[in-house]
Amino acid sequence: MxxxxxxxxxxxxxxxFSLWIAIASSEAIGLQLVxxxxxxxxxxxxxxxxLSNGIPVVMRxxxxxxxxxxxxxxxWGRKDWPKGHQILERWMWSTMPLGAKGYPKEKxxxxxxxxxxxxxxxxxxxxxxxxxxxxxxxxxxxxxxxxAIVNSPNFEKKEIDLQKARIQADLKSVFADPDKYSNDVxxxxxxxxxxxxxxxxxxxxxxxxQLSGGELKEYHKKIVSSDRMTITLVSGLPRExxxxxxxxxxxxxxxxxxxxxxxxxxxxSRDKSFVFExxxxxxxxxxxxxxxxxxxxxxxxxxxLLFEILSEMLDEEIRTKRSLSYAVQAQTLQYSVGLGIIxxxxxKPNETFxxxxxxxxxxxxxxxxxxxLEEYKRVFATGYYVGQETHSAxxxxxxxxxxxxxxxxxxxxxxxxxxxxEPENVKQLAGEILKRFRIGVLFxxxxxxxxxxxxxxxxxxx
Length: 462
Hints:
The protein has 17 helices and eleven strands. The chain has helices spanning 16-29, 36-45, 87-95, 105-114, 139-151, 157-173, 178-190, 201-210, 216-223, 239-250, 300-321, 349-365, 370-386, 391-405, 409-419, 423-433, 450-459; strands spanning 46-50, 56-61, 67-74, 118-123, 128-135, 229-235, 274-278, 284-292, 327-334, 338-346, 438-443. α6 (157-173) runs antiparallel to α8 (201-210) and α12 packs across α16 (423-433).
């Protein structure tokens, strides 16, 4: 089995050292992925408090660490921007680090280079963030810069225009990448035009043409709101010292009353379950999407494991046994609503659809042995936790749990809940979600029959 990253949402929290103790112990004493002692140690090292304006601050201490990482996350993503303005999400966050009050772009570049400061802002579908990472010796130098970038970015016209040109060039390049572009193809039917998750690249380009960027300042004032923010610290610095700096720099941010949009699951319709776009290429790019558990669904951990298993089984059947593709995977994205994705590129789409159907049927009707499931858990846990060894990944995981659950406690419960997943749970969830597929294909029309896709959808509908 190979390690796979199956979720865009970062969960983990254990150090690599703790991970290897856990994995080694699981071989000797049965499947105990993480010891109670390790979990309690993580709890002791993670403390939550609040600034005077109510912003939660979670500090994860790493004793002896020479690096300090700070992430400020905002419960406001692309979905919350109004239709016709969603590209502003990417535009605003990419422009912010290019200058702020007291820090023109040249000064920002000078400081980040001189002191080795990593500084960035970015937006996502549901959450946006700014982060900074610096060695402890220079964190006091980095803090005023970070505060200015978050609180008072310049949004100079020349930088706004520069970012616009860069975004346009990037969006236009997607058409030349069939794998990326096939996601636009499937999204035409998976999401209706009003769904807040939908923003295809051609739609984003049209928005850019109609917007000047002058709106960025006003949106920034609205989004930087104390009730939408979380601060996560990963550091070895004294707790009181770094918390005092957070209060000084971010404790005066006010609440603006920005309201998040509610999201509903995409609805399945037979009439909108298949879409095809012709391109005279030798390889078919196939995207299959379907509804899956959200991050707050009680089955979200079972779902992560199920997609690990699905991906491994697809790889074995399609690549190893049948040599139909070198690029096949399954993954789940878990936001306020979840979705599942199967991606494959192949010169033999009909045979590939048959292989996928076989794997799905097996998962829906056959019970995994306890031994097989334990092996899948070990593989999943290894890749899952090793991916959390950096300060930034740890901060993102902590802030993500706080955003969706209002607490970091589910983060500590994750290993035990993973251990508790049984073969019956995997089979039951597979039966519930591996159906009602929507399929998008980018390929040469003369080499493809629509019935290959539509029969796949019908045969797996129930």
